Amino acid sequence: MAGNQEFDADRAQDFRVVGTRPARPDGMDKVTGKARFGADMNMPGQLIGKILRSPHPHARIKSIDASEALAMPGVKAVVTAEDFNADAKDRDVLTNIMARDKALYEGHAVAAVAATSRIKAQQALKRIKVNYEILPHVTDVDAAMQPDAPILHDDMFTQGLDEKPAKPSNINARHEFGHGDVEKGFAQADIVIERDFKTAATHQGYIEPHACVANVGADGMSELWVCTQGHFHVRSQCASLLGMDVSRLRVTASEIGGGFGGKTTVFIEPVALALSRKAGRPVKLVMTREEVFKASGPTASSSMRVKIGVKKDGTITAGEASLNYQGGAFPGAPADFGAMSAFACYDLENVKAVAFDVVTNRPKGAAYRAPGAPMSVFAVESVVDELAKEIGMDPFDLRLKNAARDGSKSSYGPKFGKIGLVACLEAAKAHPHYAAPLGPNQGRGVASGFWFNFGGETCSNLNVNEDGTITLAVGTPDIGGSRASMCIMVAEELEVPYERVRAIVADTSALGFNDTTEGSRVTFSSGMALIKAARKAKEEMCKRAAMMWDIPAEAVYWAEGAAHPSGPNAGDFEPMTIEEIAGSAAKTGGPIAGHHEYNADGAGVSFGTHIVDTEVDPETGYVKILRYTVVQDAGKAIHPDYVEGQFQGGAVQGIGWALNEEYIYGEDGRLQNATFLDYRLPVASDLPMIDTVIVEVPNPGHPYGVRGVGETGIVPPLAALANSVSAAAGVRLTDLPMSPPKVLKAIGATKLAAE
């Protein structure tokens, strides 16, 4: 009865609820304003917290004097680095949430106050005197790698080398992946192309700023309400940073107004807790938009070189990449993921990717949908596009000839299992979009992309209520429609209507540990946990029915939302519905529930292919997107609306990254565009309707074939757009974003060269 976690092809042919498109359970609350987000929480007697941030990109903190602030009426607490646990497990997070010896970027927190009003808190910040010794700074990744660059951390010696360097540097680590002999491969090639590429740092652009309310009681028992992608992770980090027992901190996740990886770590939550502990009252802390840009994690910027060799018949003989990623003032740029993803779409005999994790005087980076992959794939897919043109081969045919397939040895090591890249490429090539005619100054670009997906620690509960309805408790915040997907899978498993199942995101006191909502893991891992919990509940309900019928439990099976005797020999009984079984639960043993906890594996990797048409105005450099199509393998689309939304959302964010979005730093090391007025996100008028094609190559590691879809969608757009714009402009664009001035400059340079 319990079954296993492998894909069941026979069962998949008879899905009743999986693959349907019911209304989202949180939709009404969100459109009516009833949903409670991070800043919607208030506690009686709460104070307002504000953070003092460094105006300098790099400065030694010689002293902090908060006496004048503390003397002000209404100011109840001031905290600095001394109020946190110096022995916390994650030293970088500790130093990021409150600067200790040095401020490492403009916006780095140096102190915080709690006062009875926002105005009083802001006034108190002005009374805190900080004595800085200004130090040289560096914000560019290539400049930070130079021997004479200002050093951020005196104890940083590059990891991943054969020998420990004699001197510290800003290079935290070197990562290398690959196999074969690339030099031998290049010697076999008829054509070799080598190019340099750059991408700018971009922000996730979530509409809801970071917000939280913290309350530390007199007995040390603490509560935290927060907008986050992972409240269990918030609990672990905050407890460590404040020297608390994890059991004394209860964290509740609010609804979340966007995250995309940017709300997977802590920035202000430990500060609010420290202020509450010191003041003895609840403290509410909400970031301004400027603080979000200057002090919460954007993605990395990169500087890359890619070299690929190909034979005239289209066989890629070798691929090599050197990737430099900066992730802000602390280690952790996704350089390793970039190196692993760069050539993942190809089955190559000779491949090598080397990546460097570099620190600069910028805010500590955070994940942004498939961290690291969009940059390296942009570089690789751009060169692949050039090679296709050089040998006169259709870009899809070149990719299909060299595509990774079931059993291929990946560029980062393991062999692939069952994967859907070829299916995506074939579906994209056959799509009407690819055959549509183009006009003057228009170009078409294609690109493929990859993401790993993972499972992680997961714990879920299922309760059968006395009226036969089902309540689910999950520990993974819903950032992409996961509550609906959970309800669909449980309804499928129990064979009951979707409307009879309801899911909640439980707080940290109600469930065992759950990993963060990231890595495209939730529908896979929480879904599988609930499928297993549902199967346990079915077993129990069959036992209860058997008890009432006075027959062996083995003689009962579950179908169509009811227990059935297995045949005439088991007895002549009418099927007993879930409502009847639940209504009699008190007489047959008590509440009926299912529970499952595990460390999920078998997530199954994900591939996608995008097609985009653009038109370039040769007079202004403006890029107009004419048409966009996303083709991606979902394994099995549990709720197709959500899957399509993830595809479209990834494409839109990739469009912004490719065409407009970037962190702009001046020579003074300060961010120049820290508002949505100056940081150019794409809006509806910038975009066409985005077509989607859901490919379903089932993941063998999930009973319903699920693969995560949240991240792969942002990987191909940078390259697809670069290939399209390059074709439309008649010049190869290698520096993102491709803003009008850059495009116009490239067109002008080409004209000058031609003259």
UniProtKB/TrEMBL annotation:
Keywords: Molybdenum, Oxidoreductase. SUPFAM superfamilies: CO dehydrogenase molybdoprotein N-domain-like, Molybdenum cofactor-binding domain. The lineage of its organism: Bacteria, Pseudomonadati, Pseudomonadota, Alphaproteobacteria, Rhodospirillales. SMART domains: Ald_Xan_dh_C (SM01008). Pfam families: Ald_Xan_dh_C (PF01315), MoCoBD_1 (PF02738), MoCoBD_2 (PF20256). The keyword Oxidoreductase applies. It comes from the Bacteria. The keyword Secreted does not apply. InterPro entries: Ald_Oxase/Xan_DH_a/b, Ald_Oxase/Xan_DH_a/b_sf, Ald_Oxase/xanthine_DH-like, AldOxase/xan_DH_MoCoBD1, AldOxase/xan_DH_MoCoBD2, AldOxase/xan_DH_Mopterin-bd_sf. This is CO/xanthine dehydrogenase Mo-binding subunit. It comes from Aestuariispira insulae. Residues 32-136 form the Aldehyde oxidase/xanthine dehydrogenase a/b hammerhead domain. GO terms for molecular function: iron ion binding; oxidoreductase activity.
